[in-house]
Design a protein that fits this description.
The complex is a heterodimer of chains A (about 450) and B (about 500). With about 450 residues, chain A is an alpha/beta fold. Chain A has helices at about 5-10, 15-25, 30-35, 35-40, 50-60, 65-75, 80-85, 90-105, 110-125, 125-140, 145-150, 155-160, 195-200, 200-215, 230-235, 235-255, 270-275, 275-280, 290-295, 300-305, 325-330, 340-345, 365-370, 370-390, 400-405, 415-420, and strands at about 175-180, 185-190, 215-220, 260-265, 300, 315, 320-325, 350, 390-395, 410-415, 440. Chain A contains 26 helices and eleven strands. In chain A, strands 1-3-2-4-5 form a five-stranded mixed sheet. A four-stranded parallel sheet of chain A has the order 8-7-9-10, sandwiched between helices. In chain A, helix 25 (about 400-405) links the parallel strand 9 and strand 10 (about 410-415). Classes of the chains: A alpha/beta (about 450), B alpha+beta (about 500). The interface between A and B is large, with 38 and 44 residues.
Chain lengths: ~450, ~500
């Protein structure tokens, strides 16, 4: 597509990057059909192509982002389905990051929006604050209609989505090392996330057990924390970079102690961001090479485990598992088959859902900031789940897990919880009622 | 600014203001686009070299909404430009500055599926592929498959009488539409055809299909469904020259074989498509044919043997039969994404000429000569079986004057197609891009007769008015017509 930037504009590296991305787009429109917001809203402005065009105009004229661009960018789920579809390889991810940064730094948001966004940015990434706000949230729940009347639909959405605090406390907390019982084959760092630790710590517990059982030493750094994705998607680049730098330093420290073979992600939304640290940190001087060295060994846990022979499962079951692939796995990281294969090898009957490329509406903080569209998408996904009648839905990201648990009657768990169960771990929370459908073949951990 | 010109400005802006006021009485606020940034998103389609900012875009949700908009357009004599998904390569959906853009993308519901009678009734904004997806589990599909079928709407397919790879066997849109509901320029709702094969009386349906939104705005369609074949697999044949591939196609068709599809891609296209689809295309051949047959495994294999026998006369250097459904899928994903994939290399102008198959290899070498003389690189991707060429002329859109040169180069190619006994559009339609080239194909008398038909449906010339016909000729014609009708009434 033709662009109209002056030479001076192109001296700004962000504008140069935008120009390179825009020149690739031929405006063919294929992306519209697989866009999660366009399928719901049917409006060109809420499609990737429409947004790309509006971003182009904003950057070319140099005008501050207006209300219209802000609205339509806010409605983008960043599911990146468009990038899987796009035949010419338009890098929508980085273009939308640029646009969001522009909106955050040069646009105008009403006080209420700024307040909510700040609130999210200051709570969700910090386990202690999140934990406290969950308690406060539970207390505030009865006052939802009052809050709605005050015009804070986002707060209401947050309260509606409020997960019932996990009944099971975390088995592993803080930093430390889980050593395999047998010979050690690999040493990996597990990123335990931020919100995940509070909302469903069982995911980390299951990941640690699952890997340790395979002879993988699992290290958790107490200095690593939130990946920064949430801030980045809200256009708060500085905060995102701060999070990324802190993690990078934590990795460096670990690597100095004893080299690590992989950085393992069990929340795919975070995985997409962490894999892109070399881009996010590209403006930090003198560390490019080392950052790249780390990002090259970031793996989703499914991507990592698929290369292991997980040995014979310890159970016999007729449970049917529908796999919901998070957009961050399918589109962000282009992982398509790994969870299916792992679950199948573990003895489950695995099923796919219709429209797998469409987002469930979770999308980070989207279901809080855009409750109406998120609800349409959540309901749509729940219908697809209903059609295939699975016993359990398995997914790979905490956000999807929360969103679908809210919209579907079928229990939703992380696939690592099911894998851990199949190879000797405990039954995942929420599916205890299905335990009778599983015959344990052996009773001891580590089987043979 | 003088008082007089200020007054003129005021009168000029008064019409749009009244139109918008009336529109907001019949539509919800979120169905009307007025903001500058938003309107810009609608200023072009897949022919991005041309942009015109509309003054308003509406997104109707029902036939009644469209009719209400049309009545307002009629009341103020304001043109309407219909738009589906905006994937036209001929600028069919590019707005006019004084037009209401009627975008049917929200009318995306499947209204009724009647498998017993092999038909489906859909709203016009349904995407082509969504129809097949809705009946896939029952073993049916909708046959015409333009490469943009993932996103293009049935409304646009009807407007342009779209084709596609598999139309060699199944025919183009007009052969697969049973009925339409449309809104006229005055806002009346008409229906042509229905869920049966041969309606009585004049075949108005065939007139509507391919009329490029110039006779009415189609809001619903009844489409023909077909039963899915037992199986389908493509064969890949690579050649060292375009001519060999072209001659091979002519020989296959000439000997009486009718594959479901015969597609042609040249080297640059093969490379770009491979990058996107990872289909395992051969990267060292100059031309690649994708030949698909349907039926049982035995039938398909037998057909492939016959094709391979014919092809052996043209020295194919690469032969591969898709073994699995996944391989076949990747092969088609690559082909169908070709226009987008070329974006990896450069901007382009996509041509859409048709020629008799016997002239294929001659025309291909002539196209190379023409593009060479302009120093443009060309990439050929097309439906070879029915002689529907798509030379993509690659150019740098950011260089001043290049678009004008590329348009001239394209015009020469289309002239070549007409000289070879073919025509200037196979499936993309005339739109804005080729309206002035219509004189290559038709005499003035022909065009005047065509415009008379439009005038019957659209007496005020408000439906997609600047498309299809050469601008000057259309203006003269309308002046003459109104003069003669004034004469009659006097």
């Amino acid at each position: 597509m033709k662009t109209e930037f002056t030479k001076r504009q192109l001296r700004n590296p962000d504008t140069q990057l935008a120009n390179d991305i825009l020149r690739r787009c031929v405006h063919c429109g294929l992306c519209t059909a697989t866009c999660s917001s366009y399928v719901v809203l049917g409006d060109e402005r809420d499609s990737p192509r429409g947004r790309i065009y509006m971003i182009k105009e904003m950057l070319e004229t140099g005008a501050a982002p207006d209300q219209s661009l802000t609205t339509h960018m806010d409605r983008c789920l960043t599911c990146l389905s468009c990038m899987t579809t796009c035949p010419s390889g338009v890098d929508y991810m980085h273009l939308s990051d640029l646009a969001r940064k522009e909106i955050e730094t040069r646009g105008h948001r009403p006080f209420k929006q700024r307040f909510i966004r700040r609130l999210l940015s200051e709570t969700l990434p910090y386990p202690k604050r999140l934990s406290l706000s969950l308690t406060l949230g539970t207390l505030a729940r009865p006052f939802r209609s009052l809050i709605a009347k005050m015009g804070f639909k986002e707060i209401v959405a947050m309260l509606e989505l409020l997960p019932k605090r996990a009944k099971r406390a975390a088995e592993f907390t803080g930093g430390g090392i889980a050593r395999p019982r047998g010979p050690q084959l690999k040493r990996v760092l597990l990123m335990t996330g931020c919100a995940q630790k509070v909302i469903r710590p069982a995911i980390n517990d299951a990941s640690i057990r699952l890997m340790a059982r395979q002879g993988i030493e699992v290290v958790i750094s107490k200095n690593a924390g939130c990946c920064g994705a949430m801030d980045q998607h809200m256009g708060r680049e500085k905060e995102a970079v701060d999070h990324a730098m802190r993690n990078f330093k934590a990795w460096q420290a670990l690597e100095e102690e004893d080299p690590i073979d992989g950085i393992i992600m069990n929340a795919s939304g975070c995985g997409t961001s962490v894999k892109d640290y070399d881009h996010l940190l590209s403006k930090q001087k003198g560390i490019a090479e080392e950052v790249k060295k780390f990002t090259d060994k970031v793996f989703d846990i499914s991507e990592f485990l698929i290369n292991y022979d997980l040995r014979t499962t310890e159970q016999w079951t007729d449970l049917k598992i529908a796999v919901h692939m998070p957009c961050s796995m399918m589109h962000g990281q282009r992982l398509t088959h790994q969870p299916f294969e792992l679950l199948q090898n573990a003895g489950f009957t695995v099923m796919a859902l219709d429209e797998p490329h469409i987002c469930c509406g979770s999308a980070g903080t989207y279901n809080i900031l855009q409750p109406e569209i998120a609800t349409s998408l959540g309901t749509r996904k729940a219908e697809h789940i209903k059609r295939v009648k699975p016993d359990i839905v398995a997914t790979g990201n905490l956000g999807c897990l929360t969103q679908m648990s809210h919209h579907s009657d079928t229990p939703v768990v992380h696939f690592v919880e099911l894998l851990d169960w199949a190879y000797g771990g405990p039954c995942p929370e929420g599916v205890e009622h299905l335990q009778h459908r599983v015959d344990r073949l052996k009773t001891t951990e580590n089987g043979n | 600014m003088g008082i007089f010109s200020k007054l003129q400005e005021k009168i000029k802006s008064a019409i749009p203001r009244s139109v918008i006021r009336d529109l907001s009485e019949v539509l919800k606020p979120d169905q009307i686009v007025l903001d500058q940034a938003g309107l810009q998103a609608f200023e072009t389609d897949a022919l991005t070299a041309i942009q015109v900012l509309p003054f308003v875009v509406v997104m109707p949700e029902s036939t009644e909404d469209v009719a209400a908009v049309a009545r307002i357009s009629h009341k103020y004599d304001v043109p309407m430009v219909p738009r589906g998904a905006g994937t036209s390569l001929a600028g069919g959906a590019i707005p006019l500055s004084n037009a209401i853009v009627v975008c049917v993308s929200r009318m995306n519901k499947i209204l009724d599926i009647d498998l017993m009678n092999r038909s489906a009734k859909v709203q016009a904004g349904v995407t082509n592929l969504a129809i097949s997806a809705a009946v896939d589990r029952d073993g049916f599909f909708y046959a015409p498959d333009p490469s943009s079928q993932l996103s293009c709407t049935i409304a646009g397919n009807i407007a342009m009488n779209s084709g596609g790879a598999h139309c060699l066997k199944y025919g183009v849109t007009t052969h697969n539409i049973l009925g339409v509901k449309l809104v006229t320029a005055e806002g009346k709702i008409l229906e042509f055809g229905g869920p049966f094969f041969d309606p009585a009386g004049y075949d108005f349906l065939s007139l509507i299909v391919g009329s490029e939104g110039g006779l009415g705005i189609v809001t619903e369609a009844t489409v023909m469904l077909r039963t899915k074949p037992e199986g389908a697999r493509p064969l890949l044949l690579g050649f060292e020259t375009h001519e060999q591939a072209g001659d091979c196609v002519a020989a296959i068709i000439g000997k009486g074989y009718l594959p479901v599809a015969i597609e042609f891609m040249d080297k640059p296209a093969i490379k770009a498509c491979e990058e996107h689809a990872r289909a395992g295309y051969p990267l060292d051949v100059e031309a690649l044919l994708i030949i698909e047959f349907e039926g049982s495994d035995e039938e398909i294999d037998a057909s492939f043997q016959q094709i391979l026998r014919i092809a052996s006369g043209f020295n194919p250097v690469h032969k591969r039969i898709a073994g699995t459904a996944e391989e076949a899928e990747a092969i088609w994903l690559g082909r169908k994404s070709a226009f987008g994939a070329i974006g990896r290399i450069s901007e382009y102008l996509c041509m859409d000429g048709v020629i008799p198959l016997s002239k294929l290899s001659h025309v291909l070498s002539k196209i190379a000569e023409i593009c060479n003389s302009y120093k443009f690189q060309v990439s050929n991707i097309f439906h070879a079986g029915d002689g529907n060429l798509h030379p993509l002329i690659l150019y740098d859109a950011n260089r001043t004057g290049e678009f004008q040169r590329v348009e001239k180069c394209g015009a020469e190619i289309l002239e070549l197609c007409v000289m070879a006994g073919g025509c200037i559009t196979g499936e993309h339609g005339v739109g804005l891009e080729k309206r002035d080239l219509m004189t290559l194909q038709f005499s003035e008398a022909d065009l005047i007769n065509q415009m008379r038909v439009k005038l019957l449906f659209d007496p005020n010339w408000v439906l997609n008015p600047d498309k299809v016909f050469p601008l000057e000729l259309a203006e003269t014609f309308r002046r003459d017509e109104s003069a003669s009708s004034d004469g009659e009434s006097a």
